[in-house]
Design a protein that fits this description.
This protein has three helices and two strands. It has helices spanning 31-38, 47-53, 58-97; strands at residues 17-21, 24-28. It binds zinc ion (ZN). Zinc ion binds at residues 4, 6-7, 9, 28-30, 33.
Length: 110
């Protein structure tokens, strides 16, 4: 039995697609796998491939995805924090460099 070149699932006899390219023969279990392959997607990055691929339970996959999301969120936060610090530094510099008095604010006429 052939194996899907994309999600590495076993392909049932008489099912699937055979695709020849780059002097290689690819077997796909479905047109979905073939299309994703042609789009240049990496099967290891696709959740639906992982679901069928490595025998992980749904809960495990969910946890993994959550972990990834958390990690990304943390990275964003750290970046924002850094930028904030930089801005504050700049502010402090310009303040100490030139002591300018703020022009008196005019009260809006009512
Ligand atoms: Zn497949």
């Amino acid at each position: 039995m052939a194996k899907c070149s994309f999600c590495s699932r076993q392909i049932e006899q008489g099912k699937g697609v055979i695709f020849v390219a780059f002097a290689r023969v690819y077997n796909f279990c479905s047109s979905k796998c073939m299309k994703n392959f042609q789009l240049g997607r990496e099967s290891s990055k696709l959740a639906w491939v992982r679901k069928t691929g490595k025998g992980k339970t749904k809960a495990e996959l969910k946890e993994e995805l959550l972990e990834e999301a958390k990690h990304e969120e943390k990275m964003h936060e750290e970046k924002a924090e850094e930028e904030k610090e930089k801005k504050e530094e700049k502010k402090a510099e310009s303040k100490s460099g030139k002591e300018q008095e703020k022009p008196a604010e005019k009260e809006p006429a009512k």
